[in-house]
Specification:
Elements: E1 6-9, E2 12-15, E3 21-23, E4 25-26, E5 32-33, E6 36-37, H1 45-61, E7 74-78, E8 97-101, E9 105-111, E10 114-120, E11 123-127, H2 134-149
Parallel strand pairs: 3-7, 7-8
Antiparallel strand pairs: 1-2, 3-6, 4-5, 8-11, 9-10
Length: about 150
């Protein structure tokens, strides 16, 4: 989403040329790091997931390179593994957005006129209103929802 991928600099929004995703990682000894998957928008899902796993493991071992801690255009955080259902994240300036994911929980859900139980995750978006607005955020979350429901589109 172009209106969320970039930085607030010198009093204005500067769109980024690449999608560089910061991934919030809780450290076992306490604290938080957000290493970056550079050019994430160009990676196929299997490569993206392999890089994510590698970054998380190395972050927890203290083995990240300096370049892996710079350049995020957007951060993603998830506290689902800690049982948190809804995440209200804090933007890391100069970024203008952070996407949060909660735990996947089973909920009653109506589909095609039938009530059933299905896995549901809550996604939230924190955005800097100097750079964007709620309509852009709504379109972004709608796109995330569509991709989660139709992963073959990735």
């Amino acid at each position: 989403m172009p209106g969320l991928n970039g930085y607030w600099q010198n009093g204005g929004f500067v769109p980024a040329d690449e999608v560089n995703v910061g991934v919030a990682v809780s450290l076992r000894q306490g604290g938080l790091l957000a290493p970056v998957i550079h050019r994430a928008g160009t990676l196929p899902p299997d490569v993206l997931m392999a890089r994510l796993k590698d970054l998380v493991q190395r972050a927890r071992r203290g083995r990240l390179r300096g370049s892996e801690m710079r350049g995020a255009t957007l951060t993603v955080t998830s506290l689902g593994d800690q049982g948190v259902e809804t995440v209200f994240g804090v933007i890391h300036p100069p970024q203008v957005a952070l996407v949060g994911f909660g735990a996947v929980v089973e909920r009653p859900w109506a589909t095609g006129g039938m009530l059933g139980v299905r896995p549901v995750v809550t996604a939230t978006l924190a955005a800097d209103h100097r750079a964007t607005d709620g309509a852009v955020g709504a379109r972004y979350l709608t796109a995330v929802d569509r991709l989660l429901q139709n992963p073959e589109e990735l």
